[in-house]
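Data card: per-record layout.
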Amino acid sequence: MAALLPVHIGSSKPTLDPYGHLLRMLVPRASGIGFYDRNGTPLWVSEHYDGPDPQPVVEEALANAPPATTAVIDGYTRDFAGAPAYAFRMRNDSGQVIAVATLMTRDGETRPYSFVLQLVQPALECLQRELVARTVLGTMSRDLQSRDDDLDLLLQVAPEDPQNPQQADELGLLVQTCVDHLDCVLGALVVPERNVAICKSKTGTRPLVSILTATHRHLLNWSQLQRRTLLVNNADAAPGGLPPYKILSVPVRHSSGRVTGFLAMFRAAEAEDFDLRAERLSELLARKTAAVLQNNFDSATSLLTRQAFELQVRAALAAAADGPSCVLYLDGDRMHVINDNFGMHVGDEVITKIAEVLRRKPRPGALAARVAGDRFAVFLPDCKLEFAEQIADTVCRQCEELSYARGDGTVQVSVSIGVAELTDSPAALAHGMASAEIACKAAKDRGRGRVEIFQDADQSIVRRHSDVLVVQRLHEALERDRFVLFAQPILPLAPEGGEPRFELLLRMLSESGEILPPEKFLSAAERYQVLPKIDRWVIKNAFAALKSQAGMLRGRKGMRFSINVSGPSVADEAFLEFLETSLADSGLPARAICFELTETAAISNLARADRLMQRMRTVGCSFALDDFGTGLSSLAYLKSLPVSTLKIDGSFVRDTTNNPRTESMVRAIAQLAHTMGMETVAEYVETDELRMRMASLGVDYGQGFAIGRPVPLVEVLGDLALYEVMAKQA
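The structure for this 730-residue chain is written out next.
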């Protein structure tokens, strides 16, 4: 037969030439030498051998290998084509055959197997150790390569540029990449409460949606009941109802640990099994999915956040064919009335109900987002302006139907909606949102609970109503004293915790006598620099009202009335002198007056805020830091400002019932305040549950509907004795 040349498996690997030459030296009479792996594939064979093919000898040696033994080298000799042939099996530490060496000789050169083994055993043992080392290194290399591939996958599903419209479908990209990486026929992500149902197959193929249709209920139930990964490699033994596929399904969890959905991969029944690596990688991607969901969806309403909404709309516009698209801008009507009459928690319920209407997707491909507070946006692809108006009318009617009775009153729900068509421009969405918001404001000015379409002619109307008219009303209210002071009690949370306190709240009266909350005028007052005048009106009228109780207040060491001071007033050099003069002329005891500053007002005018606080503290007034915890530098300046009370922001207070981290933060703030000799007040204590929770966390005082509603200041001053009794029974 033709001569067999050396075979080198992989040019980068060192050859086995030295071992072949060594055996040739040890057994000079051998006519052919060969090394084969455990599958019988040649690793190295000697040159110029022209005898019978040794492959049958190799196959026989592998087929007749005895069970694992402690011997590293074992074998036999046999007559092959009239000449002796020697076969030596090499084993690893576990006793498994990893290679076979053959020595082919000529007729008449028969020697005992034991004699030949004694000659070649040292060389074969060296070869055995190298092959074992190569196997270990190969396994490590493959493992490292798998890890590199997995890392590449994780980097692939992390968008390099969050503003790139191509990265908008981050969840779809994640599922698609996982399908391709794990060589699956299908991948699916299902999160019902987020309206997420994504189905992907290998790139370039159409997904078999029927597989997901047949399995999603079973997989969702498994994930929520078992709360662990489901691995089915034996398709015949799949749980009832599942199709004959190999399935790897991993739960997707909310940050609280609750299972909200699943990420599942499917392989054909004859494909490779899912291994531990695939399971671990899928679990990592499930955690990545949870993070994406948390970042892209509003936690309270399950609608898109504004950032995610804008990103997905830009991607949809980039991929859409020529055709009109529209956007709706929705604003809840009279939310301040609901909050004042029923509590902030009822206002939150209304916002959630409105969001449920929008989650029904009024049009295929529609995207809905919670823009901020009680404001929402809806993108309507491939939709003309007239049809968008019909959709808006339907949504408006559906929201009105959400009204319901609560206690002795009725929660009236309605929304004002602005509709705008998106133009063909680089900033189409930004212009469309601004136009829809203008139309929404016009809808509010024209009676609320209605729909308005943006038209260029409407801009002057909206501007007149939303800006100039509000400022004019503010100045008229100041000139004609069309403001009224309310007071909300701040009571101790622990029995015998102290005397009652009150925060003074401002309301404006319309020409018809309607009481308007600060949301209706404070933003315009800030924009047109009217806040300092409003602050002076509040202080002047508050001191005048309290003057009648000056004698009683001198005998009460703990009773205190809090007055809010805005940032512009703090920055006003003449304001401090006005404050000192007004207090001196009022005859009120200074300890009965507390001034509240927000964190923003304090840090934006830190030097003047410190000067004002130091001067007024010298005469006996105290200071409270409002909305504590929302600023980024709270602790940095807290030690330097003469603050006696910290008012914990309501967003922290309301979140303690379902967020252990927030609860820990509130407890830490209370402990910090006590260490620094300060008192704490929890804002927005709307329920008895919150009141008891704040007390258990060490907070000193509570303010909110569970404590007392805002009422006119004159009524509070007439019932001070009643509030003192309430404080003792808190």
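Known properties of this structure: The chain has a mean pLDDT of 84. The first helix runs from residue 17 to 26.

See the next section for split statistics.
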